[in-house]
Design brief:
alpha+beta, 65 residues, two-stranded antiparallel ribbon, OB fold (Dihydrolipoamide Acetyltransferase, E2P)
C-alpha cells in the first residue's frame, strides 16, 4: 500500500503528516473566532493545525485518488 503524505500548516510551519497515522481529528474555535483542527496521531499526542476539517477531508480524498 502506498504511503499518503499530506502537508498541513502548524503555527506557520508546513508539516508533513502520514495520513495513515491520523487517529481522529475535530474542529476547535480559537479565542479569535478562527476554526482550526485538533488532530491526534496517537492516543495522547495531538497537534493543532490551521486547516479546517473540511480542508483536511479534501486533502485526504484528493490524495487517495
Amino acid at each position: 500500500m502506498k504511503t499518503t503524505i499530506i502537508k498541513l500548516n502548524l503555527a506557520g510551519t508546513i508539516v508533513h503528516v502520514n495520513a495513515s497515522k491520523i487517529m481522529y481529528y475535530y474542529p476547535k474555535q480559537t479565542d479569535s473566532g478562527q476554526i482550526v483542527t485538533v488532530m491526534y496521531l496517537s492516543k495522547d499526542w495531538g497537534i493543532e493545525v490551521l486547516e479546517t476539517p473540511a480542508e483536511i477531508d479534501a486533502l485526504l480524498n484528493s490524495s487517495i485518488l
